[in-house]
Task: structure prediction
Amino acid sequence: MAGKDEVRKYLSAKQGLRATFTVATHVVREMQSIQNTYPVASLAVGRSMVAAILLASVQKKGQVVSLHFKGDGPLDTFIGEATFEGEVRGYTKNPQLEVPLIDHKILVGPAIGKGTLTVVRTFGSDPAQKGSVEIQTGEVGDDVAYFLHKSDQIRSLVTLGVKVNAYGKVEAAGGVLIELMPDYDEAIVDLLMNNSLKVASISELIAAGGGALELKDLFLKDIEVHEIDHPHELTYTCRCSKARLIQAMELFPVEDLEDILRKGKEVEAKCEICGRVYEISLEKIEEIKNKVRKTTLH
Ligand SMILES: [Zn+2]
Result:
């Protein structure tokens, strides 16, 4: 049984690296139970959620990091988003996609195909920082490492793991992000490579109950680090709201709103990311319609 979700962060100023470890089984499972994702979508969304947790945790308070994969394959799109404080969510356009096994494995790469990974970092009301790279393998971890190298000029080791069992249920999820600082010690690279090669599978390790501390002990073996406090719990949290939904409805064509009014039934709109249902009354729709009409008249 996988242990509790957590994030642990470490730093070694002497060796020039910082490292973040996470176990995120429960938040990925929650995403799966809301969106009923089949294996390939569970792996894709799960890994991008884990990557978002890792990237957001090393930033600063109030920061939001989202990863958007958009490709020409049948999966089309998947997104992982997290805040520094541990609010995580994920989404795919095609949660029930079924794919053939390749070498007895479920691969995300062929399902997402060729396309782009866009990383959006927002902080408060500052303009969003956006960077895009071409999707490399589509297995998420490689793409995130490529992004960090291309966009931030950071050499890194990114290992993401999501395990689904024979019934397609998420059994474990977690990841490792080790970033080298500009003044890193060259000897550390060999040590890190050696350590990581000894870890067969982080998702198996997490499925067997291993936590972030065990991951740290394996990946940072013989490397002197100190832990950085990060007292934030991971929760599956969506930032949708009725106000945002109404904002979205203000972009509807007037005819669509009139249609709803003609039917005379209030609208139930469900957020696909968190499953929350919002009821919009006919009075509110009338109000939206009048607003839309006003803005389209002049
Ligand atoms: Zn939502």
Observations:
- The mean pLDDT is 93.
